[in-house]
From TrEMBL:
<keyword id="KW-0808">Transferase</keyword>
<protein>
    <recommendedName>
        <fullName>Probable dual-specificity RNA methyltransferase RlmN</fullName>
        <ecNumber>2.1.1.192</ecNumber>
    </recommendedName>
</protein>
<dbReference type="InterPro" id="IPR040072">
    <property type="entry name" value="Methyltransferase_A"/>
</dbReference>
<dbReference type="InterPro" id="IPR007197">
    <property type="entry name" value="rSAM"/>
</dbReference>
<keyword id="KW-1015">Disulfide bond</keyword>
<dbReference type="InterPro" id="IPR027492">
    <property type="entry name" value="RNA_MTrfase_RlmN"/>
</dbReference>
<dbReference type="InterPro" id="IPR004383">
    <property type="entry name" value="rRNA_lsu_MTrfase_RlmN/Cfr"/>
</dbReference>
<keyword id="KW-0479">Metal-binding</keyword>
<dbReference type="GO" id="GO:0008168">
    <property type="term" value="F:methyltransferase activity"/>
</dbReference>
<dbReference type="GO" id="GO:0032259">
    <property type="term" value="P:methylation"/>
</dbReference>
<feature type="binding site">
    <location>
        <position position="324"/>
    </location>
    <ligand>
        <name>S-adenosyl-L-methionine</name>
    </ligand>
</feature>
<feature type="binding site">
    <location>
        <begin position="248"/>
        <end position="250"/>
    </location>
    <ligand>
        <name>S-adenosyl-L-methionine</name>
    </ligand>
</feature>
<keyword id="KW-0411">Iron-sulfur</keyword>
<comment type="function">
    <text>Specifically methylates position 2 of adenine 2503 in 23S rRNA and position 2 of adenine 37 in tRNAs.</text>
</comment>
<keyword id="KW-0949">S-adenosyl-L-methionine</keyword>
<dbReference type="InterPro" id="IPR058240">
    <property type="entry name" value="rSAM_sf"/>
</dbReference>
<keyword id="KW-0408">Iron</keyword>
Length: 374
């Protein structure tokens, strides 16, 4: 993949060979049809779904409620292996684990599991690479390889849940490692989720549909992060879901945002925020405004003041992210005193603000560092 030229945007992913069809690609009705096509009774679709989504049993020999002869047929027809682990890397005392996956066509993507005292969050990828070309983001600098299928997105979470279930992640020897259930999913890995809209929405349905149709996660525990594709934000509002929307703003003024988030040349700050407020209204959820603090670029007190003016009296929360280093970038994180002043300015406007931890930084697993280099 050649490095994109500055400002270049890629909305439509190149087409390649399609990943094999998988149970998680299909709705409940489609699963029944698929099972019948394989020569099985329709109710086997529910049995298989229960094994995959509720019991996390990917291996056919665990499906004791299904006759052995049917197991092989169903496994081959509906549960092909979509991805394999190239490697896992951990840090933060094993509370953060990044996995590099190889997909059926050799394409590489990454996901990150993070354990906190009260929850386990998984950060997943929606595309291999990204077409949005933000200059401070390692994924953006690599360009867009392809969209992930619904099942390739869902499988990342299924794999995370299986790891937790098998005791490979989520508990330490003392048993004091905190939460052991995966409850939160953030679309903050590789890719622009709203540029792979249909598959991402279908994946959210699989994550949140009750068993046996899906994993039964709460929509409130899911965050979709976007550079600000306004028509897609409006579409998302029409889905009537209660997933959280995060907007990667990074600058309150169009002049600077045009350079940091090139899609701003299509949809301006004011348009993006209007769409976000409409989403907040429909979903009942506060918008998370993502702002990577970059030294001497977007961290001035006047920009914090301007941001505060834009956000005050709206349903928003600012997540400041100290810039994580990426290869070849000349930018670094803000000085501590500038970060403090930025926070202070926002608070003067009554805007809630938190500074995100730099989880996974030492394994290149933090925000904007996912590059999936083999
Ligand atoms: N494409 C979506 C999903 C990726 S989320 C989006 O941009 O929202 C990844 C988040 O990390 C985004 O807010 C992104 O802007 C931010 N990010 C990217 N590079 C970063 C870096 N080097 N340091 C800190 N945050 C970064």
């Amino acid at each position: 993949m050649p490095k994109p030229i500055p400002g270049e945007l890629t909305f439509v992913a190149p087409r390649g060979a399609k990943p094999p069809r998988h149970l998680a690609d299909l709705t409940a009705a489609e699963r029944r049809e698929a099972v019948v096509e394989l020569g099985e009774k329709p109710f086997r679709a529910d049995q298989l779904s229960r094994q995959y989504f509720s019991r996390l049993a990917a291996a056919p020999d665990e499906w004791t409620d299904i006759p052995a002869a049917s197991r092989t047929k169903l496994a081959e027809g509906l549960l092909p292996e979509l991805m394999s682990v190239v490697r896992n890397v951990s840090c933060d005392d094993d509370a953060t684990r990044k996995t590099l996956w190889k997909l059926f066509d050799g394409v590489l993507v990454e996901s990150v599991l993070m354990r906190y005292p009260d929850r386990v969050t998984m950060c997943i990828s929606s595309q291999a690479g990204c077409g949005m070309n933000c200059p401070f983001c390692a994924t953006g600098q690599a360009g867009l390889t392809r969209n992930l299928s619904t099942a390739e997105i869902v499988e990342q979470i299924a794999a995370g849940m299986r790891s937790i279930k098998n005791g490979e992640f989520g508990a330490d020897a003392s048993g004091e490692a905190g939460a052991v259930r995966l409850s939160n999913v953030v679309f903050m890995g590789m890719g622009e989720p709203l540029a792979n809209y249909k598959r991402v929405i279908a994946a959210i349905r699989r994550l949140t549909d009750p068993a046996p149709g899906g994993f039964g996660l709460s929509q409130r525990g899911i965050t979709v992060s976007t550079v600000g594709l306004v028509p897609a934000i409006n579409r998302l509002a029409d889905e009537e879901m209660s997933v959280r929307l995060a907007v990667s703003l990074h600058a309150p003024d169009d002049e600077l945002r045009d350079t940091l988030v090139p899609v701003n040349t299509r949809w301006r700050v004011a348009e993006v925020l209007d769409a976000a407020w409409a989403y907040a209204e429909r979903s009942g959820r506060r918008i998370s405004i993502e702002y990577a603090l970059i030294k001497d670029i977007n961290d001035q007190a006047w920009r914090a003041d301007l941001l505060g003016r834009l956000l005050k009296n709206h349903r928003a929360h600012v997540n400041l992210i100290p810039l994580n280093p990426t290869p070849g970038s000349k930018w670094t994180a803000s000085r501590p005193e500038d970060e403090r002043e930025f926070v202070r300015q926002l608070k003067l406007h009554g805007v809630p603000v938190t500074v995100r931890d730099t989880r996974g930084q030492e394994i290149d697993g933090a925000c904007g560092q996912l590059a999936a280099a083999g």
